[in-house]
Amino acid sequence: MIKSFITSFKLKNAYRVNSIIYSIKQLPIINRILPNELYKSKILKIIGNIISILIEIIGIFIGKFLYIWLMIISMLVIYKTNMSDTFLHIFTFLTLCGGLLNTYMFNPTKDKYYAMFTMNMDAKKYTLSNYYYSLLKVIIGFLPFTIIFGKMAQVPLWMCIILPVFVVMVKMAVSGYSLYDFEKNKIAKNENLPTKILWIVLALLLAISYGLPYLGFTINKTIFVIFFAISVVFGVLSFNKINKFKDYKKIYKQILTKENMYAAQNQTITKAIKDNVEKQIQFDSKLTSNKKGFAYFHDIFVKRHKKILTEAVKKQSAVIFVIMILVIIVAYFNKDFANQTNKVLLTYLPYFVFIMYLLNRGTTVTQAMFMNCDHSMLTYRIYRTPKVILGLFKERLKTLIKVNLLPAIIIAIGLPLLLFITGGTDNILNYIVLFISIIAMSIFFSVHYLVMYYLLQPYNVNTEMKSSTYKVVQAVTYFVCYYMIQIKLPTISFGIAMSAFCILYSLISLVIAYKYAPKTFKLRI
Known about the structure:
Blueprint: H1 2-26, H2 30-33, H3 42-76, H4 83-101, H5 110-118, H6 123-152, H7 157-185, H8 196-215, H9 221-244, H10 248-255, H11 265-279, H12 293-304, H13 306-333, H14 335-347, H15 351-359, H16 362-377, H17 386-421, H18 429-456, H19 468-483, H20 491-520
């Protein structure tokens, strides 16, 4: 088993090194300097191996640190419940979510395909050696942070130490059950394609994780110990099942199908997205438009994709409207809640940057544009001419802004109204700034995502995301928006600054897009 693990680790590392070299070659300017013979360079491969090992080591810890800090510690401040019980409560139910969503065993990856079907490695030895290595990384990665953050939350040391074991036992219990289910139903679980029932269960667990503490209910230390004991019992039973199971190759033959021949995680996700998008397209030959040229072409696209573009936003807006009405009603009858809300509206406007980021549908819309339009049209030379690209860009920008403005307008009107009902403000500019800043944020994200799509077009002909730069920009956008949650500034000063930034950024981005999009908007290799 050790020999199988060493071989598989070398295989995985070789693939990672080539991916690192590929990502470097995709970076702007650098891709023109570096030759295609780069993959043959021994020096670069040595550097790539060093980077790969560092990524492996850092990956063991950084993900666990961010997980506990972002998902648990940063949330504790909003609850009035006992801190240690709240920490254990959120950790417990998020662990159940993680166990159901990611066991490490049923995740289709390229290295599994290459090892078991190209190199014909023993499926059981390969699976078990890599599975236990993944569980070992969980314990090593979690332990320092469950101790540090657990002690910060006043959780007893011995509980902090067993928390990583709890995570491992839950994952083993789910894996054992999945193997039992395969023997019974002959259907292999694919972690990248969760069922509707699983999504419902995950939503309930998340609601319990974050909702119950807000209502004043959490599990205590005794209940956590019971959860832990149950996980150990099922984990140990599953350990026996995992080791005795013989048909791992049959499982991976199902997971690594022809449609997912390369077994890449991003391909599986892309296929799921593509299938979901195709289900929502309205194929109606009677659909027409009175517009001409690029506007006609785009208008037909919008009408066929109205479920993705408009109907989903209408539902989102209806939910926001109901929430806004409920908050206004509660604030009207509850003075304490009204006073707290008033303070939030005058100092927590940065928080709404993250909310507007989450509400924005730029990623969904650009994915639909590529998968059901640009994916095929970019193979035609005429579609890549500056006139066509810029003509469609203008039409798409109008649509995306309109789509995102619907929920934004509800929030932009609701916040000043809520401010007035909760006690108002001496400076009338607060009302105006609240409205304008929300609208500016909405337009900013619309411009940002469309410009990013046109300048960094990340997909290849197989709808795989191939742009490392695009991924970096996505990650930076997320972390900047999330960081805004931590900022407290007067609404007037932040709102004016944010609105000015959004306008300036949008203008500069549009100029850059108009200049460079005809050169950058093309299929990736």
